[in-house]
Amino acid sequence: MAWKPPPALQVVFYLILTALGIMGSTIHYERYLNSSQLEAVFYNDSPLLVLAGAGSGKTRVITYKIAYLINEMDLNPQNILAVTFTNKASNEMKDRVNSLLRVNVDVWIKTFHSAAANILRIMGNHFSVKPHFTIIDQQDQISIVRKIIRDLNIDPETYQPGKYAFLIDRAKDKLFNAEEAELEAFSTDSVFYDIYKIYEKKLGNENLLDFGDLIFKLTRGLEQNEQGLNLLKNRFRYILVDEFQDTNHAQYTLLKKLTHPEGNICVVGDEDQSIYGFRGARIENILSFSKDYKNSRIVKLEENYRSYQTILTASSHLINKNSGRFGKKLYTKKGEGEKIRFCRAFSDRDEAIFIAEEIQNLKYHDGYEYSDMAVFYRMNAQSRAFEYVFSRLHIPYIIIGGLRFYEREEIKDILAYLKLAINPMDEISLRRIANKPPRGIGEKTVDALVRSTIEKGYPIYQSESEIHIAPSRIPLVKSFLDFYVELKDLVHNTYPPQLLRILFDKSGYIEWLKDENKEEKVRNVYELYNAVEEYSKENQSSSISEFIEEVSLNQGGYDNKYQNNRVFLITLHNAKGLEFPVVFIAGMEEGIFPHYLSGESPADIQEERRLLYVGMTRAMEKLYLTAAKVRKLYGKSVERGLSNFVFELPEELVVFNEEKGTNNNGLIEDNTCGINARGFFQRRLGPQYLNADGEKKVKREPEIKVNNRVIHKHFGRGKVVEVENGVAVICFDDGKKMKFLLQYTPLEKEQ
DNA sequence: CCAATAAGTGTTTTT
DNA sequence: CACTTATTGG
Q1: Cα–Cα distance measured from residue A738 to residue A730, given in angstroms and rounded to the nearest whole number
Q2: For residue A689, what is the DSSP state?
Q3: Which nucleotide is nearest to A608 (CA to C1')?
Q4: pLDDT single digits (tens) A605-638
Q5: Catalytic site includes residue A224
Q6: What is the C-alpha separation between A677 and A682, in angstroms, rounded?
Q7: Quick one: which residue's CA is nearest to C3's C1'?
Q8: CA–CA separation, A214 vs A218, rounded Å?
Q9: Catalytic-role residue among A273, A332, A360, A382
Q10: Residue A299: in which H helix or E strand, if any?
Q11: Residue A470 burial by CB count (10 A; 0-12/13-18/19+): exposed, middle or buried?
């Protein structure tokens, strides 16, 4: 770790160094970078592809490279664009660049989507994008599609809105508008084209852009407007891309437009960490980079600074099962480290208890802090068991993702008022708040209002003729529109917190929540107010529309400023880019991980495998994998087999333990878990799982051999066709072929 | 038009 | 299980 002087001293240093004109030589690249990293930072003669293994310091390379470009190559910070995929990553990179250069630099370090949105805001006129567009999220997108499907008078059961929204996104990833999608036979489902066409028209009419549009409209715009393209090429003289393996076709095309085929681009990626195929990411981009950019240089980073060798060996062994890789050999100087531990609990709650207990042990006996430890899972729903157990055992935790703050109903409502004030064509927002709180403007009335305004191309407060609504509703609508006009006139030039106070006051929204006893929601709305206030303090001249822009693009936003020393509960997808001394990966069951909806094709399984690889390589010191025999999901308990991935780990590097639940239904009474008088976790039973030496390993049914006839409690009769390393392959009489870990499988020999 | 209630439903990952 | 949508009666 580099020593960081206190802020006041930093300023003094900076002033002295700048005055002496030696600021440029104050970064000791050689001291903090290894030889491959140095090469990646210094090389600028042609396009550069950095293949950076997990934990090999890729963020470090990007931050030092930005510093190098500014200090050594005399590039103006404004001429540099660095793109990442998540806000988390871009914030971290910003912090690291600023602290390296000891000054807040004016480099654009943004996500793809926010960079595109910013460009479209500033110079949308070049790309036929109207100003003041509203960015819609996935929920909005689906509800628009749902409405289209209903209007088409087709059954939303067979024509699922979510599915069509998904297809629209994928088409945009491939740079197809509705017409082109049809010409190119993008889908075999002809209804899709009708839906996409109407959707496209509706968004255009209401001046809405979905996430895909941000990239699509900009890329399309660059193809059609040379002036705009030149302006941008002039502005961005060097582009750096993080997590390049996650780019989709549209994003890659955008990059190719903005850069020269012979230089000024550096992409950093790892084909083994591509986990966003489901949203159009093309792992092939990383493979075709060398073809598209002539004379490009490839630098591999293979020294890992994060994990012990055992973790690297095990994860490499796993990922070696994938095909289509460059291949790499990660190594570390940190030494062997401990074995990976695997535990299968009886129920999902037992699994959480096992992890909770380990966490307490590690904290009280091994000196780990809560914030050193993280639990990863495949889907957000799995966090429930941990929340339940952790809160009863007083283990502080923070959930990343999950129910997001800005996706809460009350927050979206308040934002909808503001979005509508900015964009009077935004039907989605209008429908959201027209009758919240109830003011006698129901669906029919809104329909009538929309028909004579938005659908005819007028803002909602203006119409060419009388609006045909029931006479009893006229005064109600009129007073709503009066309020609306007042808000609209204030929205661009009122101090945002002031604006919110007026909104709360005149809409009656908070009063309504209070009347309904929605205390939690009231608190959240005030929380939003606090966020706006804080934002306004930090960005004095910004209007509310900039705040909204930020939160629209910061879907998973979390603030760990006040969340110190908590265990992280996080999905594997969100865990990318993070690292923890201790990592638990929960739910290692077939159907959960790999997830049963992820598909059965080799490509899908490979992506799931990469996801596990990402998870494992987050661990610095200790890694646990856990599973439950019985998992309660949507009310029902289901028994599942172990994830096949468990069998893909090198057996000699894993210690297998087993923990059992108390009773047959896997339920644990509340009062059986708790903290005892000395402040330690009190377990329900004595330790049943085995120690780390694995000596007490009880071999179950050791006599099971090839060609034995066996009976499985659930799958019935079958024949053993293979036994190796404690794993048996059994071919059941109904034709099913399955693998089992003998130690945990209740098998009887058939007499 | 609205609130309450009943029925039903669908379950991944994210910008 | 938890959440959305449909139905009903006021």
Answers
A1: 5
A2: S
A3: B13
A4: 999 999 999 999 999 999 999 999 888 877 778 8
A5: no
A6: 9
A7: A634
A8: 6
A9: A273
A10: strand A297-301
A11: exposed
